[in-house]
Write a structure and sequence with these properties.
With about 325 residues, the chain is α/β, with parallel strands linked by helices. It is built from 12 helices and 9 strands. The protein has a 5-stranded parallel β-sheet, covered by helices on one side. It has a 4-stranded parallel β-sheet with strand order 2-1-3-4, with helices on both faces. Helix 3 crosses helix 12. Bound molecules: N-carbamoyl-L-aspartate (NCD). The site of N-carbamoyl-L-aspartate has 10 residues, from helix 3 and helix 8.
């Protein structure tokens, strides 16, 4: 009898995630965050620090990255695994010699057990995962999705707002090409009517031409989320938000002539003063002019903490991929 092929675990799209699975990842990430706070010599931290010993993660980044690549590296190393990779695969991998993504994945699968892939083509992570030769983590596929970012964004929101409901979140900036927005909106929809349902009202602030694509608007309508659209940021939009999710203009994805004057999408420090001190300002980073550094000192500024949470969420994802989730109450 032919051997049954192994089904590798992947993190490709929020579409594949169930509320139960999301909750598990959030709880494991929280466990890891507490473990790290208790100290690198605490029983909890030591308990996971060799969990992935002998495993190799391959970083395959065809687009620039700081946080995603480094936090995945750090996550794998904190779990006792090893990391190999190419950080400018578009320039230094065999792609420049005309190698197909399929061939590259087949070869990387010979050297490692999980591939963290960032690629400029929407759908490329699914293409790689469908080969089913190695686990694939989508670290961003063009203007498609960035599911691990959505999980860490939501983790940051959940830590603050868990147990509360009916909040309002505002997405600001380039909602057309911003893949982090796409994935976070999908995640909010996936958690609708569950105990992780956090937002029933969404405000979208985007320049003309860079609005959220219809497919996401349709999904929000089906999920009975109240959506309001705005062409610019205003005191009213900001002051009524429990969370504001700022994004930069994804200039590298824009066609000639696309894009706008950024001033209407800059979150001014005096606008943040109008928000509740319990509200939060998020940004996947890197930022440009839309988020002035003067906001960093305000109690609502959570974006560096958000980036830090990436470590714990990505550790949780790697532990899940390798079937090594810690046991805890
Ligand atoms: C984001 C991305 O790559 O989509 N960055 C990140 O991973 N934190 C956001 C961006 O580049 O604007």
């Amino acid at each position: 009898m032919a051997p049954v092929p192994i089904q590798h675990k992947h993190v490709v799209s929020v579409d594949d995630m169930t509320p139960e699975w999301i909750e598990m990842i959030l709880k494991v990430a929280q466990f890891l965050k507490v473990a790290q706070k208790e100290g690198l010599n605490s029983a909890k931290w030591l308990g996971v620090s060799t969990a992935l010993s002998g495993q190799v993660m391959v970083n395959l980044f065809y687009e620039p990255s700081t946080r995603t690549r480094l936090s995945f590296d750090a996550a794998m190393q904190q779990l006792g695994g090893r990391v190999i990779g190419t950080e400018a695969a578009g320039m230094f991998s065999s792609a420049v010699k005309g190698e197909s993504l399929t061939d590259t994945i087949h070869v990387c699968a010979l050297y490692g057990h999980v591939i963290v892939q960032r690629h400029k083509q929407k759908g490329s992570a699914r293409e790689a995962a469908d080969l089913n030769v190695v686990s694939i983590i989508n670290a961003g596929d063009g203007d498609g999705e960035h599911p691990t970012q959505a999980l860490l964004d939501f983790f940051t929101i959940w830590e603050k707002f868990q147990g509360q409901s009916c909040k309002k979140i505002t997405f600001v900036g380039d909602l057309k090409y911003g893949r982090t927005v796409h994935s976070l909106i999908k995640l909010i929809i996936a958690l609708r009517d569950t105990q992780l349902d956090m937002f029933n009202r969404i405000q979208l602030v985007a320049p003309a031409g860079l609005e959220l694509p219809d497919e996401y608007l349709d999904q929000m309508a089906s999920a009975h989320i109240e959506v309001e659209l705005f062409g610019q940021l205003s005191d009213l939009v900001v002051s009524g938000s429990d969370a504001i999710y700022m994004t930069r203009a994804q200039k590298e994805r824009m066609a000639e002539g696309e894009g706008v004057d950024g001033n209407a999408y800059t979150l001014q420090p005096d606008m943040v003063e109008l928000m509740s001190p319990e509200a939060m300002v998020l940004h996947p980073l890197p930022r440009n002019d839309e988020l002035p550094a003067a906001i960093d000192e305000k109690p609502q500024a959570r974006y560096f903490e958000q980036a830090g949470n990436g470590l714990f969420v990505r550790m949780a994802l790697l532990l899940w991929i390798f079937g090594k989730l810690p046991e805890f109450d």
